[in-house]
Amino acid sequence: MVTIIWRALFSYLMLKGLDNWIGLRVTPDEEVQGLDNVLHEETGYLDL
């Protein structure tokens, strides 16, 4: 039980630190535009 609590707390703190440092989410505008295009400047699917 202690191990589960320790892992949950450690994971939470790691994710909070990463979120403050580099951010874990994209903006709603980037999500609408498409992550492939915004982050990698590539298209995920070809319009045939």
Strand content: under 5%
Mean pLDDT: 88
The total beta strand count reads 0
Shape: elongated
**Helical percent range?**
55-70%
By oligomeric state, this entry counts as single chain
H/E element sequence: HHH
Whole-number radius of gyration? 17 Å
The count of helical stretches stands at: 3
Report how far the terminal alpha carbons are from each other.
Answer: 54 Å
How many domains is the backbone divided into? 1
List the helices and strands and how they pair.
Elements: H1 2-21, H2 28-33, H3 35-40
In short:
The radius of gyration is 17 Å and the shape is elongated. It contains 3 helices and no strands.
General description of the model:
- It is a single chain.
- With 48 residues, the chain is mainly alpha-helical.
- It has one domain (2-40).
- Helix content is 67%, strand content 0%.
- The protein is built from 3 helices and no strands.
- It has helices at 2-21, 28-33, 35-40.
Features:
mainly alpha; 0% strand; 67% helix; 48 residues; elongated
